[in-house]
Amino acid sequence: MKRVCTRQFRNLTRLRSFGEVREKISRSINHVCLSRRSFHGSACRLGELELTSVRYPHVQRGKYATLTEKDVDFFQKLLPQRVLQDPSELDGYNIDWMRTVRGNSQMVLRPKTTSEVAEILKYCNERHLAVVPQGGNTGLVGGSVPVFDEIVISTQLMNQIISLDEVSGIIVCQSGCVLETLDNYLAERELMMPLDLGAKGSCHIGGNVSTNAGGLRLLRYGSLHGSVLGVEAVLASGEIVDCLSSLRKDNTGYDLKQLFIGSEGTLGMVTSVSILCPRRPKAVNVAFLGVENFEAALQTFQLCKGMLAEILSACEFMDQESMQCIQENLKLTNPIKSYPLYILIETSGSHGSHDEEKLNVFLEAAMGKGIVQDGTIAMDVTQRQNIWGLRERIAEGLLHDGYNYKYDISLPLPKLYEIVEDMRQRLGSKVTRVVSYGHLGDGNLHFNVTTPEYDKEVLGLIEPYIYEWTSQVRGSVSAEHGLGFKKRDCIRYSKEPNAVKMMVKMKKLFDPNGILNPYKTIPL
Amino acid sequence: MKRVCTRQFRNLTRLRSFGEVREKISRSINHVCLSRRSFHGSACRLGELELTSVRYPHVQRGKYATLTEKDVDFFQKLLPQRVLQDPSELDGYNIDWMRTVRGNSQMVLRPKTTSEVAEILKYCNERHLAVVPQGGNTGLVGGSVPVFDEIVISTQLMNQIISLDEVSGIIVCQSGCVLETLDNYLAERELMMPLDLGAKGSCHIGGNVSTNAGGLRLLRYGSLHGSVLGVEAVLASGEIVDCLSSLRKDNTGYDLKQLFIGSEGTLGMVTSVSILCPRRPKAVNVAFLGVENFEAALQTFQLCKGMLAEILSACEFMDQESMQCIQENLKLTNPIKSYPLYILIETSGSHGSHDEEKLNVFLEAAMGKGIVQDGTIAMDVTQRQNIWGLRERIAEGLLHDGYNYKYDISLPLPKLYEIVEDMRQRLGSKVTRVVSYGHLGDGNLHFNVTTPEYDKEVLGLIEPYIYEWTSQVRGSVSAEHGLGFKKRDCIRYSKEPNAVKMMVKMKKLFDPNGILNPYKTIPL
């Protein structure tokens, strides 16, 4: 039993009667969608989604070759039984899991080795055949599906763990390893992956690295630019760039692996990675707090950064409208009273009672200063999952409203909620809800608007206004989702012309024929 | 008073009579050398050091223009009173602080702003005048001094702190800020820089970023690839690439800033940086332990990683020969009995008594299991500095032997000491000492051999043997020092030909005329 830190902290035990959300909640709705067993909130079934080439008529197919029988013969010899061409099998590779884009690829290749990937790319480069590398196909910006008839190179069969040094915590594996599989493998050895995502049951580590995935552990363990120690990638030419170092320090020349982190498969296809894995925490605590305004939320974050310091592992927030959404649409129960904003704080450490003491002292201070008004602490794993469920099921709740306009932006912390209030005023009664939540500790806002159905006028009120707003305060129009196909033309809101010019030059240097994941990342 | 965790841990209080090293020790001998007030172990005075062009006759001057009066006029107009040409003033910019290389630059430019740097580079690029960017000139591989007559662009006057967001801990500053100045500024705000180096009193943050400096906090806070959030750099063409984001998350296009981290000023000159700074720890503990062999050292590291977990901030090691060196040459006292290997463990946390308890429990376990034989814990700041002094003054101690062959390599942890034993056998009685120490937690070995004077035969026994050995186990021939001028031709021991080829292409893309820090990083 956890002790109550102050009398004010009166809702501590309410969570026990938290029946509505007691069912096992996967860390996010993503899990459900990703399995493709079902899809919530969409009337659209497989086969009915219009082709990307139809929906986005301004995007023209590049001057690439078209697949011939000779090509198919080549690939079938190279990858016996590992070339998919049956249209019924191709849908899952042509359509993104959000069901917003649909390519028209006629062939999926499933290599098992780096040298097979090298053979494929060498051939495609010589033949001017465009390709799209694909991992778990869990991206949110249409980056991992074909736009036209690009050949899909899937990493599904590249799923071998190559090595683990348990002393240093460095794992080396192929790019097709599923994140959760790796995390489970590490859990048996008291280690864990430095990143965690809702899509972890499906996403591939190669895709995580290629999109510089952020997620729930970034506040504590930093970005993949720091924790990825090595990358092996195949260039468009078929040349293998082996920077698969498993060293913490290596200052010999340019750090080429960084180029493949976050470039969405447009500079090379990641085939193996080496990652530094932290120790798995022995104790995890979760608190859910109510505050009166965003200023108090920031004060809470600052206070917990100082007082929880090395054990702070997440600082998430959600607003009243987020809570209303999950209450109304998912019938979840708010474990505390209604407040304008809620904060979820997680600690992860090596010593349970030390961590509890720190958390209690922090909560006493936060409530004593009048920053935090109310709160509850999870008592066990189920309660932890339930509190996390409140934060993570908002995305699911939103789908029930009808149409959902989704944005994933980074802003300087003092500006993080100003945009929400501004937008709420701007949209007024034209919309069902303006809902925001996100990673407070990372300055990452998930901003959402819902309407009963798609409304062009509402879209016109949101865009480009939200991008211009973000740009003016030097925010990022894509905090963690990347640009992919759908956002590549928004790059100018977050990057200067000289930077974009350098990117274009680098793309040309690495992939002169432009065969690698065309129509993605780099703007038209 | 700190309690003794076991009876075995009997040397706890010995440190109090630790008179020999009680004088205030700067974190490293580097401090002394860097100030250029004195230089230990070298008979060579300023003016006597031979020119790099003489010492390395195989390196030919590139086909660059030579400085004319018209050029000088241009720079004097652009930077009034900030162009140095007096030969007596130029020595400090032409010679590295180790006094191993000496350029022959005729001019030092001291811009204050990014746009001045842009003007300089635009002009130099058009005129084909080669330049070398220089920060605190504290590098160890001759990367920041001219090789021939390159114009020095010093960041000495680019020392403004631009902003600090105390909530997120993100500082933005010009590249010429001295690391220690930044750390002191942050200390007043309960924050700290994520890196710490012996040279912190002199080195510039722009140089740290350009060389991807490692240092003493890397084990805990990771590399600069993770903690640098933004970079503003000027390309050879004079174009400013503004990627000075102060966001934790930004996935809009390629992460160009990574290219400037560790590329030693050969792709662009860093003018400003944005860095994520951790909270300053409230409690710091240091323990000094003796173990019987390297296997026990690894077990100690593994145990403390697990038990100290989030509070572990350093795990350094030094061998018996290191201890003998500082005992004999610096008259320092070993606070415990003599052991084959010693380990220094530092914890940093937010709660003193929690940290002490964790440390004591760890020490009890380590001694109970028979892994650690003996040890002592620092009782106060002075004792902490004294223990750190044992580890950090080895470099100074070595200089007293005469000639010092120095290597800075990364190896897979299980191999880290094997190379030392192998080399000790190989060199036998031909040398004074074979000494090794380093960052155990990072797999980074500082390997040293001494002889009374420079001995070509000994050098031939060490090189290329040590590089080949390192290469065979996929180690790095430069863990944290970079390649610069002196090690650029060693790159092939740690990087594959395809990777080097890509680097050469990138250099050509970013700097087609090759004016930026020529003769560095990229091999001949």
Automatic annotation (TrEMBL), chains A, B:
GO cellular component: mitochondrion
Listed cofactors: FAD
Reaction(s) catalysed by this chain's protein: (R)-malate + A = oxaloacetate + AH2
InterPro entries the UniProt entry points to: FAD-bd_oxidored_4_C, FAD-bd_PCMH, FAD-bd_PCMH-like_sf, FAD-bd_PCMH_sub1, FAD-bd_PCMH_sub2, FAD-linked_Oxase-like_C, FAD-oxidored/transferase_4, Oxid_FAD_bind_N
EC number of this enzyme: 1.1.99.39
Transmembrane segments: none
UniProt domain FAD-binding PCMH-type: residue ranges: 101-280
Cited Gene3D superfamilies: 3.30.465.10, 3.30.70.2190, 3.30.70.2740, Uridine Diphospho-n-acetylenolpyruvylglucosamine Reductase, domain 2, Vanillyl-alcohol Oxidase, Chain A, domain 4
GO terms of molecular function: (R)-2-hydroxyglutarate dehydrogenase activity; FAD binding
Function: Catalyzes the oxidation of D-2-hydroxyglutarate (D-2-HG) to alpha-ketoglutarate. Also catalyzes the oxidation of other D-2-hydroxyacids, such as D-malate (D-MAL) and D-lactate (D-LAC). Exhibits high activities towards D-2-HG and D-MAL but a very weak activity towards D-LAC.
Name of the protein this chain belongs to: D-2-hydroxyglutarate dehydrogenase, mitochondrial
